[in-house]
Design a protein that fits this description.
Layout lengths: L16 H10 L11 H14 L4 E5 L2 H11 L5 E6 L3 H4 L4 H5 L4 E5 L8 H9 L8 E8 L10 H13 L3 E6 L2 H8 L14 E5 L9 E5 L8 H7 L8 H11 L3 H20 L6 E2 L7 E5 L2 H9 L5 E4 L2 E5 L6 H15 L1
Parallel strand pairs: 2-3, 2-4, 4-5, 5-6
Antiparallel strand pairs: 1-7, 6-7, 8-9, 9-11, 10-11
Helix pairs in contact: 1-10, 2-10, 8-11, 11-13
The structure holds pyridoxal-5'-phosphate and allo-threonine (ALO).
């Protein structure tokens, strides 16, 4: 089975054709370095148009850097950041946010289906207000969440009102932001600055790029000196155009949204095909491009023996993740193998 026959991660996919074509176009001539090139300007302007607001845009290599540096910009070392206990910044960034902020503490909240609840936020903000405890200053929401669910615009507005009351900045981990927009069928502004998000880390990597994340500051006062923070962290690409030009490929004709819609549709096909099969049940509602299922260990082992790859370490179940490159044939082949093994 080829390496593309997998549901391990959207990080396994290749580069989508439109991004590749834009990369080739950027490769035709020399361009200024360190973000001074025409492609970076075009990509940043394209994101300002997409979000319909005058936001500050920066490009970094990966999501851990984007999250870590963004969080370091919205709080100090003596502050704390509230996030869900399943948040990637807690579970899979190796202390990056704490390191980049020189010590800000992550306070872990709860909520069904991987979503922080206003009650959990209030509890964490008020449980200790004495000088000995790191003062809550920021909130991190993952949209779509690590377990493939989404915050609705209304849920975000309620969380914003809690954040306002407690003077918290809001960071959004948008590793699968495109998938959330596609699932909610809203304008991107509805689940970002109009819902009070201060900074968004918008992943290109999971949406068809080789690498490259956009850090979008809607609250521009928090972006002060961010470029120096990136430079010191080794996140200022000298040939920035090779990150920003593929972003132009995603933005042109809303390829970013089509890629997300496709990934979500493949996951929907997969979830529907698994429903009702003996011993298999969904662990979380399928809302974007991931399907989280409880499957007996022997079945998982048999699928892996057939070459299928998928993770078990997220959300306490098997995660089947689709991408822009997933095909219906691949989904149907997986389902056929599952049906044969459970029959
Ligand atoms: C929810 C989430 N946030 C952030 C990231 C960024 O991680 P990376 O540093 O691997 O780009 C990922 C990675 O896949 C992710 O799943
Ligand atoms: C979990 C892993 O770090 C990666 N963020 C993924 O979702 O595949």
């Amino acid at each position: 089975m080829s390496q593309s026959e997998q549901f391990a991660s959207d990080n396994y996919s290749g580069v989508c054709p439109q991004a590749w074509k834009a990369m080739e176009a950027a490769n035709r001539m020399d361009e200024p370095a360190y973000g001074e090139d025409s492609w970076t300007q075009k990509a940043a302007d394209g994101l300002r148009t997409l979000f319909d607001t005058d936001c500050d845009v920066y490009f970094v290599f990966n999501g851990t850097a984007a999250n870590s540096l963004a969080l370091a910009s919205i709080g100090q070392s003596f502050h704390s950041v509230i996030c869900h206990e399943l948040a990637h910044i807690e579970t899979d960034e190796c202390g990056g946010p704490e390191y980049a902020s020189n010590g800000a503490k992550l306070l872990l909240g709860q909520g069904e289906n991987g979503k922080l609840t206003p009650e959990s936020i209030k509890h964490l903000v008020t449980k200790r207000t004495d000088i000995h405890y790191p003062k809550p200053k920021a909130l991190s929401l993952t949209q779509a969440t690590e377990v493939g669910t989404v915050y609705t615009p209304e849920e975000l507005r309620v969380i914003r009102s809690v954040a306002d009351h407690h003077k918290l900045n809001i960071h959004m981990d948008g590793a699968r932001f495109a998938n959330a927009v596609a699932a909610l069928d809203v304008h991107p502004s509805e689940i970002t600055w109009k819902a009070g998000v201060d900074v968004l880390c918008f992943s290109g990597t999971k949406n068809g790029l080789a690498l490259g994340e956009a850090v979008v500051f809607f609250n521009r006062s928090l972006a002060e000196d961010f470029e120096w923070r990136c430079k010191q962290a080794g996140q200022l690409a000298s040939k920035m155009r090779y990150i920003s030009a593929p972003w132009c490929g995603l933005l042109k004709g809303d390829v970013w949204l089509e890629n997300a819609r496709h990934a979500n549709a493949c996951a929907q096909r997969l979830a529907r095909g698994l429903e009702g099969l003996p011993g298999i049940q969904l662990r979380y509602p399928r809302q974007v491009n991931g399907v989280f299922v409880e499957m007996p260990e022997p079945l998982q082992a048999a699928l892996r023996a057939k070459g299928w790859r998928f993770y078990n370490f997220i959300g306490g179940s098997a995660r089947l993740m689709c991408s822009w490159a997933t095909t219906n044939e691949q989904v149907d082949r997986f389902l056929s193998d599952v049906r044969a093994l459970v029959s």
